[in-house]
Design a protein that fits this description.
This protein has 442 residues and is an alpha/beta fold. It has one domain: Luciferase-like domain (TIM Barrel). The protein has 14 helices and 13 strands. It has helices at residues 35-47, 80-90, 107-120, 135-138, 149-167, 225-234, 244-260, 282-294, 298-309, 332-339, 350-356, 367-379, 395-410, 423-427, and strands at residues 8-11, 52-55, 95-101, 125-130, 175-178, 183-185, 195-196, 201-202, 217-220, 237-240, 269-278, 362-365, 385-389. An 8-stranded parallel β-barrel has the order 1-2-3-4-9-10-11-13, surrounded by 8 helices. Strands 5-6 form a two-stranded antiparallel sheet. Strands 7-8 form a two-stranded antiparallel sheet. Strand 2, helix 2 and strand 3 (95-101) form a beta-alpha-beta unit. The protein is globular, with a radius of gyration of 22 Å. The structure holds flavin mononucleotide.
Length: 442
């Protein structure tokens, strides 16, 4: 039955994914800075036997135009490393994936933080390797300029190499604790780092024991050309905002690059975004969606689209389709998700896009409708599993766990109990071997 399990990682955003969800009466999601809310959310996800909680992170306010900001609740972002650390102490089984940017950390520092979370959680940590999501983040760092996509990913690939080398510094059995001889560890089992690359120099060795998982699980969400390259060559879980045929094309492409790089099919899992609105019936779910849309500030959907596309939409006529937009510096996958939206198989007018596009992975329906969608997406090759975004946080997680998970379990598509204790175990990934050759270990 385990092979039938559809992996799901929940990606909760403070203030919810939908910009009106904070206005729901009785929502528990507005107490953003109270850890109790996050602790309860983590426990709910664990009660649902989800694979992991995946905390997004950015180094700036959510990109909503300044004049609309005060209408949204997406104004606070917990540091993902700190929040996952705290969640680790409140849970026992669920994986904890933290986003951390290569542009805003040093490899030694981040390798330590992640290794410590893996120790603290007994092997449940993951790292979502992000370069930088856009110019709004770099403006908050004195020495980081907005650099080209190619250079960001070139640096990121080297960053990951350094981090892995640091994680491999210590052999698993290096601590011998020979009290009689007075030898704490075997010096042959500690490897120097001496990394001298194009962008990073790190002497090492590392001051943290090899993580329980060998390496925390590596996640990536790049969808530009260089982003896909890094994702397919180093990522183990790849997050994609794309579903349907575009999602399948993305998955086929990254799996092809991964195979060319010598990786086995089971080494990589693509999780595509699902952002469900769940009711006991399709009608109830539709009512929830209608309520959200009715309470959305009219200009916000436009502002959100402009942020995703990286352009000002005002020059474009409302009753014509958008022209080809060329490249922008925004998240490629979200841009593709917007631009691949069709109405009756054709490119929508701008008005249709503004009123009809519900957002990546939005499915409105009963547990059976949501489960049908999930099974069909997996069947059609758009993803191996899902990154679950919450329209309202934590309400849609509670609905997912209480309504959709039992439906998936009935269909034999979701685990009833955790069968492993580590995130690698949940996802069926092997523990990576130490890169130092056996010869160097004797
Ligand atoms: C599901 C998903 C989650 C993401 N989470 C984050 C995040 O938390 N922080 C961030 O800065 N970027 C995030 N991104 C953006 C990507 O990691 C990447 O930086 C972005 O796609 C730009 O690279 P690209 O041009 O290769 O797409 C996410 C993207 C996706 C699809």
């Amino acid at each position: 039955m385990m092979s039938q399990h559809i992996p799901v990682c929940v990606m909760p955003h403070a203030g919810g994914w939908h910009q009106a969800s904070w206005r729901r009466p009785n929502t528990k999601g507005n107490d953003i800075w109270n850890f109790d809310m996050w602790r309860d959310l983590a426990r709910t996800a664990e009660r649902g036997k989800l694979d992991a909680i995946f905390m997004a992170d950015n180094q700036s306010l959510w990109p909503v135009p300044e004049h609309l900001r005060h209408h949204t609740a997406k104004v606070g972002v917990w540091d993902a490393l700190i929040l996952t650390t705290a969640m680790a102490t409140a849970t026992e089984k669920i994986g904890l994936v933290a986003t951390a940017h290569t542009e805003f950390h040093q490899p030694y520092e981040l390798a330590r933080q992640l290794a410590c979370i893996d120790h603290l959680s007994n092997g449940r940590a993951g790292w979502n390797i992000v370069t930088s999501a856009g110019p709004q983040d770099t403006k908050n760092f004195s020495d980081a300029g907005q650099i080209s996509t190619e250079l960001r990913y070139e640096k990121a690939a080297e960053f990951v190499d350094v981090v892995k080398k640091l994680w491999d510094s210590w052999e698993d059995d290096a601590y011998i604790l020979d009290q009689e001889a007075g030898i704490f560890f075997d010096p042959a089992k500690l490897h120097p780092t001496n990394f001298a690359g194009k962008h990073y120099y790190v002497e090492g060795p590392f001051n943290v024991m090899r993580p329980p998982q060998g390496y925390p699980v590596l996640a990536q969400a790049g969808s530009s050309g260089p982003g896909r390259q890094l994702a397919a060559t180093t990522g183990e879980i790849l997050f994609s905002p794309l579903g349907g045929a575009v999602g399948k094309a993305y998955r086929d492409d990254v799996l092809r690059i991964a195979a060319e790089a010598g990786r086995e099919p089971g080494d990589v899992k693509v999780l595509s975004q699902i952002t469900p609105v769940i009711g006991r019936t399709d009608e109830e779910a539709q009512e929830k969606w209608d309520w959200l849309q009715e309470h959305l500030h009219p200009e916000i959907s436009r502002g959100v689209l402009e942020a995703a596309l990286g352009i000002d939409l005002s020059p474009y006529p409302l009753d014509e389709p958008l022209p080809d937009l060329g490249a922008t510096d925004r998240i490629q996958g979200y841009r593709d998700a917007v631009l691949s939206y069709t109405v009756d198989g054709r490119k929508p007018t701008l008005r249709e896009l503004l009123t009809g596009f519900k957002g990546p992975g939005t499915v409105v329906g009963s547990p059976a409708t949501i489960a049908d969608y999930m099974e069909a997406e997996v069947e059609n090759g758009a993803g191996d599993g899902f990154v679950l975004c919450l329209q309202g946080c934590p309400e849609e997680l509670e609905d997912f766990v209480d309504l959709v998970v039992p439906e998936l379990q009935r269909r034999g598509r979701f685990r009833a109990e955790y069968e492993a204790d580590t995130l690698r175990g949940h996802l069926g990934f092997a523990r990576p071997s130490n890169q130092f050759p056996a010869a160097a270990r004797v």
